[in-house]
Design brief:
Blueprint lengths: L10 E5 L1 H14 L5 E5 L5 E3 L2 E3 L1 H11 L16 H8 L10 H15 L4 H12 L4 E4 L6 E6 L2 E4 H7 L6 E7 L8 H9 L2 E4 L4 H9 L4 H6 L3 E4 L11 H10 L5 H9 L6 E5 L6 H5 L4 E5 L6 H16 L3
Parallel strand pairs: 1-2, 1-9, 2-5, 9-10, 10-11, 11-12
Antiparallel strand pairs: 3-4, 6-7, 6-8
The chain binds ligand FO1.
Ligand FO1 binds next to helix 1, helix 2 and helix 6.
Length: about 325
């Protein structure tokens, strides 16, 4: 595929978490900053040790900067945890593993927010310091927090996901701040001007829905060609939180076709990308009147991420 065919398309990715960050990194390798931006979920944000933590923004920034921890996908590579150890000795909570260099990002965000800067401005400053040239934008600048409603009570997302290791049985999700949260003017402009929207392989419930649920976002997304990538590969093999959430929230098995159906019910998709391990589900997704691309979607390293992005853009180009 001649990359000139799609390099002038204005592409916007919706992302959260590790999978979304890796897909965004693949796209950032083949699309320049004037034509590719990432809108990131902030529902995972929370306050910890008095600091403003934005895990999904940091994971996308670190991944595009090429400095994320390759094993976990979040946090920084070559990281120390001396402060975390000292905080443990002092009797503070230590279930959220903040690294020493990572702390500088959280301290800076907390200071700059306290000085009255928006989360969008703060994120731009951090990107600049990390040498990231693509626009990484929080979906909104107001606090808008995912709350897990579980059989053991309600808890913020990080407590559910990290401290409780996503084991509490989910009854539902709600968003604190939903009445005041609105997409930023930059997000509104990007979605309005986009030629193509990519829904990255992130958790649909806690990474993508928070973005789509913001007032006005769905109306803008409806008017654009949209391609999604399944975060579920080989449904039967999946043990992660997305599979457990699918079961507990929708009473469904997690599969690439159930993800496609979940987005399709919102009339979002024009095309969907599934892994070769899920080739057997292609017919089910075609039957939803969707275009389907079956390809490798493993995103374990930057070269694979670039290859998946090339396949994705070659497929999406024909839908624009
Ligand atoms: N995830 C964990 O499972 N354990 C951690 O200790 C942890 C620390 C952490 C620190 C900074 C950061 O940006 C992310 C961190 N994450 C950790 C990942 C984070 O909880 C998830 O990646 C997202 O919230 C899910 O999208």
């Amino acid at each position: 595929m001649n990359t000139n065919d799609f390099s002038n398309l204005r592409v916007v990715a919706l992302a959260g978490g590790v999978g979304g960050s890796r897909m965004a990194n693949g796209l950032a390798q083949i699309l320049d900053p004037e034509h590719f931006s990432i809108i990131v979920n902030t529902g995972d944000d929370f306050d910890y040790w008095g600091l403003s933590i934005s895990p999904d923004l940091d994971t996308v920034m670190y991944t595009l900067a090429g400095i994320s921890n390759p094993q976990t996908g979040w946090g920084l590579q070559d990281e120390g945890h001396r402060c975390l150890e000292q905080m443990r000795l002092l009797g503070h909570p230590h279930w959220f593993g903040l690294g020493d260099r990572d702390l500088a990002i959280h301290l800076s965000r907390t200071l700059w927010l306290r000085d009255g800067n928006s989360l969008t401005e703060v994120t731009k400053r951090i990107c600049s310091s990390l040498g990231v040239r693509h626009s990484i934008l929080p979906m909104c600048d107001e606090p808008y927090r995912t709350i897990a409603i579980t059989k053991s009570g309600e808890m913020d997302f990080q407590t559910y996901f990290v401290k409780e290791k996503w084991q509490p049985e989910l009854i539902g999700l709600r968003w604190e701040g939903a009445t005041h949260a609105k997409m930023t003017s930059q997000v509104n402009r990007l979605l309005s001007e986009a030629d193509l929207i990519i829904i990255c392989p992130s958790n649909p419930f806690v990474s993508i829905d928070p973005i789509l649920n913001l007032p006005g976002v769905l109306d803008l997304v409806y008017s654009k060609p949209v391609v999604g990538i399944s975060p579920i590969i080989g449904g039967k093999a999946i043990k992660g939180p997305a599979a457990k959430m699918f079961k507990e929230l929708l009473d469904q098995e997690a599969s690439a076709s159930n993800i496609a159906a979940y987005y399709h019910k919102k009339s979002l998709l024009n095309g969907f990308v599934i892994d070769t391990q899920d080739q057997n589900l292609q017919a089910d997704i075609l039957a939803m009147d969707l275009e389907v691309l079956v390809t490798n979607t493993m995103l374990t390293d930057p070269l694979l991420q670039k290859e998946v992005a090339m396949c994705l853009m070659g497929f999406a180009y024909h839908l624009v």
